[in-house]
Amino acid sequence: MNIVSDLAEGRRILAEAIDAAKRLVLFTGAGVSTESGIPDFRSPGGLWSRMRPILFQDFVASEEARLEDWRRRFHLMAEFEAAQPNAGHRAMAGLVARGEAIALITQNIDGLHERSGVPEERLIRLHGTGTHAACLDCDARMEIAEAEAAIAATGRAPRCPACGGLVKCAVVSFGQSMPEAEMARAEAASRAADLFVAAGSSLQVHPAAGLPVAARRVGARLIIVNRDETALDGLADVVLRGPIGRLFEPFDQAARDGAT
Ligand code: NAD
Ligand code: ZN
Fold this sequence. Notes:
The structure is a single chain. By secondary structure, the chain is an alpha/beta fold. It is 40% helix and 17% strand. It contains eleven helices and ten strands. The chain has a seven-stranded parallel beta sheet, with helices on both faces. A three-stranded antiparallel beta sheet has the order 6-5-7. Helix 8 (180-192) runs parallel beside helix 9 (210-217). It binds nicotinamide-adenine-dinucleotide and zinc ion. Zinc ion is lined by residues 135, 137-138, 140, 160, 162-163, 165.
């Protein structure tokens, strides 16, 4: 493992590796969105230290837990809507658009990769999305604003208009099973990679954190881009310690246009 903290050196290593790769897979976590003003989970002051997650089984069992979950979702939705994709999101969207990255696997639920222009067929959302809700029984979609209006009107957590089932924000909560199709796509992409770049994730949440391991096992190079130490630094070929936006900036068309 080689740890690089110098920005210019980190950019050079990343650019050379991406140029040499034929099948780049990008993998992101909450750290890619902190430069857009959305706090991550495990950094000091992050969400983890402020509130414990609501477990799936508690959501299903308790109206009180559901109402608390919804309150948090409304707050987060407002935060997501106020945020804009940053240089890191834009650079990654450019890599996908130019065919340099075959897939972008994300643990994020904030919708910023989507808004930066990554098409659905290249984006793999492991933990769902916080930008809308769905019925737990029939999967019918409900908008977050609709759920908010229902709670304001009745004081109760919303039910599905189609089947009466519980409606929940479309994120994968702790204790909830992973989406099978997304997981299968992510595993296939990881095994196809010859370069796997994991950016902005502490790589502690499983099974997501198993993907860089799977890629490495079939011979991909592994580059970790993260401000702090991660659980998989020892497995990486190179660890780039620094801000994602600055390290990826050379791949951001808007920044390049501004510079010329
Ligand atoms: P994490 O909070 O565990 O780790 C984030 C990592 O990013 C940290 O190690 C931190 O050092 C690093 N980081 C933060 N800002 C950075 C920057 N600008 N440049 C470089 N590195 C930076 O996040 P995780 O591994 O994604 O796990 C958190 C879980 O919580 C995920 O499952 C995710 O679904 C969810 N979550 C999502 C969001 C979001 O959608 N934006 C936000 C918080 C939590
Ligand atoms: Zn339903």
